[in-house]
Amino acid sequence: MRAISLPALSYHATAQRPDWEQLPADLRTAVEARLESPVVAATTAGGGFTSGFAAVLETADGDRAFVKAARLDTQSELAEFYGRETAITGALPARIPAARPRWAATIAGYFAVCFDAIDGHMPALPWRSDELDAALAAWAVAAAELREPPAHLVALGPPRLADLLRSDLSNWGAIAAGREPMPPAPAVAAARLRELVALEASLPGYIDTTALIHCDLRLDNVLIDGGGTAWICDWNWLCHGPGWFDTIGLLISAYASGLDADTLFAAHPTAVGAPADAVDATLAAFAGFYLSRAAADSWTLASPHIRAHRLWSGEQALAWLADRQGWS
Fold this sequence. Notes:
It contains twelve helices and ten strands.
């Protein structure tokens, strides 16, 4: 086993959110009316990188629900994200392990959505093999269901990953052309810039497909329940793309955990039919995106911990690629 590389941040405590008691009284009253019972306990979600309210609420009648809420005036972009997540999760095929929405409403100046609560925990780093196996199995089920997605899900208008790559994940090309500065990065990035540009540029040609993917599959978007089953969360980035793209994204943290990410990828059902250099091209794109965004992103609705997440993720993607390529 290789050396383990752990991030400086804890993914269980990256969010900066209001607690239930900090929400306006009229919003809390409206949510309780929707839940049809007073809230007696609330556990704020510690994971994630946005400032929206997100908590498991327990009611006097014994119900548990996961509620998200964002202000319509100062958090309008978050409100749009939550609305899109509501529509997508409500339309997912039944076999996909994801929490489903119960209701959504604009109330007291907020957009609020209530999901079924998953009684589970976020996996810890380094990955435990049983929890990683569960996460990969959950994604295998979801990817199979989304290979030929239902018409009502496609009707929501998910974007094409190829377009997103050209607009948002072509950072090495922009750096080589002088449109972006070289971000703080391991020395191998500058030494191998030409190869990184070529790998990144090849990726859009591999992913023209009608299949759908999660497009943000990471450790902190997975919950493991008491029975060891994994559930996939935060579906607001659904797009048309190949399942292997998300598998590689998830395995970046497995590589950092000292595991054999290449063998894990090769054994996953989504790897069947993937181009020979799909892993290399995807890792190049992820490394460029994460490292550039860590240096430049200043989204005011994000947690300040997002920079550390992106820096570590970019470094691990680049390290995995360098290992595969034999770069020193």
